[in-house]
Amino acid sequence: MTMSGANPMSVRQPSGPSLSHAEVQRVQRYQDRLNRALAARDRQSLRRAKQRVLAAAYAPRRRIMSPAFRMALKRLSWQMAAMLLTRDRAR
Q1: Residue 23: enclosing H or E segment and its boundaries?
Q2: Is the pLDDT of residue 10 over 80?
């Protein structure tokens, strides 16, 4: 299952145990939120989306998560660290 073939920021599945279909969809939703915030150039939405990914990836294990799912979220969190909006000099 590939999440988005043409997107250079797509999350690759880790080798080893694979993600369930529900986990793939959940990681894709996080990535879609990040991409929508970038496209809209909305700083607050981007910050919120980043915080949600970090909370899901690094928070204490409240729910049972597969190691593959946790790894996919951690990889997404590293990729999103590069997602920055430039300041608009016209303002």
Answers
A1: helix 21-40
A2: no
Of 2-6, 12-16, 37-41, 63-67, the least confident: 2-6
- Contact, 90 vs 41, CB < 8 A? no
Q: Write the secondary structure of 35-82 as one string of H (helix), E (strand) and C (coil).
A: HHHHHHCCHHHHHHHHHHHHHHHHCCCCCCCCHHHHHHHHHHHHHHCC
Tell which residue, 76, 71, 19, has the closest CA to residue 49: 76
pLDDT, tens digit (0-9, with 9 covering 90-100), for 42-56: 999 999 999 999 998
Contact 12, 75 (CB under 8 A): yes
What is the amino acid identity at position 84?
L
